[in-house]
Design goal:
Oligomer: heterodimer
Largest sheet of chain A: 11 strands, mixed
Strand content of chain B: under 5%
Strand content of chain A: 15-25%
Radius of gyration of chain A: 20 Å
Helix content of chain B: 55-70%
Largest interface: A-B, 9 and 10 residues
Strand order of the largest sheet of chain A: 5-4-6-7-1-8-15-14-9-10-12
Structural class of chain B: mainly alpha
Number of strands of chain B: 0
Number of strands of chain A: 15
Distance between the termini of chain B: 14 Å
C-alpha cells in the first residue's frame, strides 16, 4: 500500500528573499539577484566570471553557541530555513521529537568554506592538525545540514543526506517523499542548501561553465535557453519543505500547499559531465508513470535550465521529445542563478507559489530563443495559467544524475 | 605567540582570553571556583578545543587523564601553570 504525501510547510533563505512571499513577489516583478564580484578576476582567484548570486542580510548568530559551533554557513542557512518551515507547518513538539519524523536534506558536498579553511591550514606549512578543532569535521561533512537540523530541532527519525551536487535538494525531496509514501516515515523535513564559496565557483570556471560575457552587466546573466547563453552564475541559499502523510496532515488541519505525486531519479551512465538526452527522457517519463499521469496533464515544466550551451540543449531536446509545445517551459535561474544544492527546493517552492496563483513565470533574460529549441514552448513573461494543476520539475547534476519531481496543486481532488 | 616569561597573572589572563574567545563567555563571569561543565556550560567537545588551544598558545600538551581531573576554572589555571613551568 502506498500513501499520498502533502507539503505542509515552507521555509527558505534565498538571494531573492527570506520567505516564500518575498520570493514570489520578486520573481513576479522580474528581479535579478545577480551581483558583481570584480575581485574574482584578480589574484588569487583569476576567474573568468565576476558574477554570483549571494544571500544578503543573513546571520545565524542568534543560534546558541553549542548549536552554531558545528555549522559552516551552509548548515546555518539550512537550519534557519528549516526553523521557518517547522513554524510554517505548525508542527508541535510531540510531532517533531517523534521517531516517525525524519530528515532528507542535502547540499553539493557539505561545508565548502570549512573544507577550504582545512586545506588552507594543511598547506600553510604548519602541522596538519594546527588550527583543526573538534568541530571542524561536523562543519565539513557531507551530511552537515541533515545532522545539524536533526540535533538542533531534536528530530530522531530516519536521516537521508543526498549530496549529489546540483540535484541534491530535488533528490532529497524525492527520497523524503518515498520514505513517507512507503510507510517508513509519517513526516519529514526535506530540502537542501548551499553556501557561496569561491573554490566551488573555481570548479565551474575552470571548465568554462561560468558566465563571463556579462560581468559588467550582472542582471543580464545567466540566460537560459537563449542564443547568447554563456554559462552559469553560482549562488547560495536554503529551502526546506515539511512533507506529511496526507491523511495525518488533513486530520491535524494542516494547511496544504500541494502534493508530491511523482518522483524519479536515475543516471545517464555515460559521461561524468555531459548530460544525455536519453537519461533525461527516462527520468521524466518514469516520474510521470510514478504519478500515474500522462504528459498531457502537465501544463508547465520547470526546467533545470542553467544557461550552459550543452546542458540547456540536452534538456530542451529531452523536454520537447515528451511535451513538445504543449507544456509551457521555463527556468528560474535567469532570476537568481544556480543555487547548486539549494536550486531544486527553492525552485520547487516557487512552483508551489505558481500552482497557488495559477501563473507561470517565464525565463528572465530570454531575449532570443535558441532556434534549435523551436519545438519547445519557451516564454519570458508571466502567463496566467488557469489550467495549471501539475508541474514537472527537473534537476540534473555532474555524475550523470537526473532527478524529476511531479508537483500537484491543492485545488483538485483533495479528498 | 608563546612568551617564555609569562607571570602567573599573565597566564591566567591568557587563559581567560581563550575562554572568552572559544566559548563566548563574559570575562567578568570567569571566576576560579566556577565549574567548567556545570556552571560554564562546557562539554566534551569544548574540552578538546581547550587542549588544542593550550597547545597552540602555550606549546603545552596536558595528558588527557590529567585534564579529566579538572573541574573548575581554578583547576585549569593550576594545570596550565604546572605544564608551562615544566616547559619553560
Amino acid at each position: 500500500m502506498t500513501r499520498r504525501v502533502a507539503i505542509t510547510g515552507v521555509g527558505l533563505v534565498s538571494p531573492l528573499g527570506h520567505s516564500m512571499g518575498q520570493l514570489m513577489e520578486r520573481l513576479y516583478a522580474g528581479e535579478s539577484s545577480i551581483k558583481a564580484y570584480p575581485e574574482w578576476q584578480k589574484a588569487p582567484f583569476g576567474f573568468a566570471t565576476a558574477l554570483a548570486s549571494p544571500v544578503v542580510d543573513f546571520e545565524f548568530n542568534e543560534l546558541p553557541r553549542k548549536t552554531r559551533r558545528t555549522m559552516s554557513r551552509v548548515a546555518g542557512l539550512a537550519t534557519m530555513a528549516s526553523r521557518q518551515a517547522i513554524e510554517d507547518a505548525g508542527l508541535t513538539q510531540d510531532l517533531i521529537e517523534n521517531e516517525r519524523t525524519g530528515i532528507s536534506y542535502g547540499s553539493t558536498m557539505g561545508g565548502t568554506s570549512a573544507i577550504r579553511t582545512f586545506y588552507d591550514l594543511s598547506v600553510s606549512g604548519e602541522s596538519m592538525v594546527s588550527g583543526v578543532r573538534s568541530t571542524t569535521f561536523p562543519q565539513i561533512m557531507s551530511h552537515t545540514c541533515a545532522a545539524n537540523i536533526a540535533i538542533n530541532f531534536k528530530i530522531p527519525g530516519k536521516v537521508i543526506a543526498s549530496c549529489t551536487a546540483c540535484a541534491a535538494s530535488t533528490q532529497s525531496i524525492g527520497f523524503g517523499y518515498e520514505a513517507i509514501k512507503y510507510g517508513q516515515l509519517d513526516r519529514a523535513l526535506v530540502g537542501g542548501a548551499e553556501e557561496l564559496e569561491a573554490s566551488v565557483v573555481a570548479v565551474f570556471d575552470v571548465m568554462g561553465a561560468t558566465s563571463s560575457s556579462y560581468n559588467d552587466r550582472p542582471d543580464m546573466a545567466p540566460r537560459p535557453f537563449s542564443t547568447e547563453r554563456d554559462g552559469i552564475v553560482v549562488g547560495e541559499g536554503a529551502g526546506t519543505l515539511v512533507l506529511e502523510e496526507w491523511q495525518q496532515a488533513k486530520a491535524r488541519g494542516a494547511r496544504i500547499y500541494g502534493e508530491i505525486s511523482g518522483f524519479y531519479t536515475n543516471n545517464d551512465a555515460s559521461h561524468m559531465t555531459n548530460p544525455s538526452i536519453a537519461g533525461l527522457i527516462s527520468a521524466m517519463k518514469h516520474a510521470l508513470i510514478e504519478a500515474k499521469i500522462s504528459p498531457e496533464v502537465i501544463s508547465y515544466v520547470n526546467a533545470h535550465g542553467t544557461g550552459t550551451q550543452a546542458g540547456d540543449r540536452v534538456e530542451a531536446l529531452a523536454i520537447s521529445e515528451i511535451f513538445g509545445k504543449q507544456a509551457l517551459t521555463s527556468s528560474l535561474k535567469g532570476h537568481f542563478g544556480h543555487l547548486m544544492g539549494a536550486c531544486g527546493v527553492i525552485e520547487t517552492i516557487a512552483c508551489l507559489g505558481m500552482l497557488a496563483d495559477k501563473k507561470a513565470i517565464g525565463t528572465r533574460n530570454l531575449t532570443n530563443i535558441d532556434p534549435e529549441f523551436s519545438q519547445l514552448n519557451l516564454f519570458s513573461t508571466i502567463k496566467e495559467t488557469p489550467e495549471l494543476k501539475y508541474i514537472l520539475k527537473n534537476s540534473f547534476a555532474f555524475g550523470g544524475i537526473n532527478a524529476c519531481l511531479i508537483l500537484k496543486g491543492v485545488n483538485h481532488d483533495q479528498s | 605567540m608563546t612568551n617564555l616569561n609569562l607571570s602567573p597573572i599573565d597566564l591566567k589572563m591568557r587563559v581567560n582570553e581563550i575562554f572568552v574567545d572559544l566559548f563566548e563567555l563574559k570575562s567578568e563571569s570567569l571566576l576560579p571556583d566556577k565549574q567548567l561543565f556545570k556552571d560554564m556550560g562546557l562539554d566534551s567537545l569544548d574540552a578538546i578545543d581547550l587542549i588544542i588551544a593550550f597547545q597552540k598558545e602555550f606549546k603545552i600538551k596536558p595528558a588527557a587523564e590529567e585534564f579529566q581531573k579538572i573541574h573548575t576554572l581554578g583547576d585549569v589555571y593550576s594545570l596550565v601553570e604546572t605544564y608551562y613551568r615544566k616547559l619553560h
